[in-house]
Write a structure and sequence with these properties.
The chain has about 260 residues and is α/β, with parallel strands linked by helices. About 45% of the residues lie in helices and about 15% in strands. The protein has helices at about 20-30, 45-55, 70-85, 105-130, 145, 155-175, 195-205, 215-225, 255-260; strands at about 10-15, 35-40, 60-65, 90, 135-140, 180-185, 240. Bound molecules: nicotinamide-adenine-dinucleotide. Nicotinamide-adenine-dinucleotide (NAD) binds near residues 21, 40, 66, 191 and 192.
Length: about 260
């Protein structure tokens, strides 16, 4: 689907990794004619991302640690000053620590909550101060882990369940300001974040997916472009699951096995 975001300004956090979801979302919005700001902690990667994206349109990088309130205020303020508008804001930055809960240091727990969950509160609060007059759209990166946790990444799942809940509450609280708040739920998308788990157990992961393949960052970007668009004007507090039908039933590989047996 082609979208036209001409004249719109879009900010995306965690968009510096060229293989990542945020980068693909930035590219999709640029190809749809938006002016795009990308925000990331990693200064070098951010510069590389801007260099790779600038052929697609008007993009600027902003160094930002989304978990630090003073940075959030300053940097999102600078983004607003550059464009005098923020129409779409996408809370995408995240970390995925792999650690059983009983082995986890409380500092790692705090970091997971701060980067994945508190950041959504901090950034949305700041963006709201610029969106409250004219309305807009906020999208949050939830996760399949928002719905069902995995042993070994419980802190991540708790943070993403929090993102799910926060999205619903924000949708209700910001509706009178004509701000829609939605989310996307990636299943297993091949990015830097999932590189290790995919290398360790690709077959197991794929067998839980009805479409029997891992997702691409572009699949999530397409859903994000739709959720932020006027085509989705009646959608708020909504999530699009981009998972290829991950665990849509307890035995997603049933039909594939049946077909293989018949062959
Ligand atoms: P990624 O690791 O490829 O990219 C994450 C980006 O966030 C990186 O560029 C990183 O530098 C940035 N970042 C980390 N901490 C930050 C901070 N404090 N401030 C600013 N930027 C910071 O991850 P991805 O796979 O592209 O995931 C994007 C989002 O989607 C994340 O929120 C993730 O939890 C979620 N998600 C991904 C998958 C998947 O399968 N890849 C599944 C479910 C949910």
């Amino acid at each position: 689907m082609g979208f036209d975001y001409s004249g719109k300004t879009v900010g995306i956090t965690g968009a510096a990794s060229i293989k990542g979801i945020g980068f693909a979302i930035a590219k999709k919005f640029l190809q749809s004619h938006a002016a795009v700001g990308i925000f990331d902690l990693d200064k070098n990667a951010l510069q590389q991302a801007v260099d790779a994206l600038k052929v697609f349109g008007n993009v600027k990088g902003y160094v930002l640690d989304v978990s630090k309130e003073s940075d959030v205020k300053k940097v999102i303020g600078a983004f607003y000053e550059d464009h005098k508008a923020i129409d779409v804001w996408i809370n995408n930055a995240g970390i995925y620590p792999q650690c059983p809960l009983m082995d986890m240091e409380s500092s790692a727990w705090d970091m997971t909550m701060n980067v994945n969950l508190k950041s959504v509160f901090l950034c949305t609060k700041e963006v709201f101060s610029y969106m409250r007059e004219d309305g807009g759209v906020i999208l949050n990166a939830a996760s399949y882990a928002s719905l069902i946790s995995s042993a070994g990444s419980g802190a991540y799942a708790a943070s993403k369940s929090g993102v799910y809940s926060l999205t619903k509450t924000l949708a209700a609280e910001l509706a009178p300001y004509h701000i829609r708040v939605n989310g996307f739920i990636p299943g297993v998308i091949e990015t830097g974040m999932t590189q290790e788990v995919v290398a360790e157990r690709k077959d197991t992961l794929v067998s839980a997916i009805a479409l029997r393949e891992l997702g691409r960052p572009e699949d999530v970007a397409n859903a994000a472009a739709f959720l932020a668009s006027s085509e989705a004007s009646y959608l708020t507090a909504a999530f699009i699951e981009v998972s290829g039908g991950k665990l849509c039933v307890q035995n997603p590989d049933f039909a594939w096995k049946k077909m293989e047996d018949m062959a």
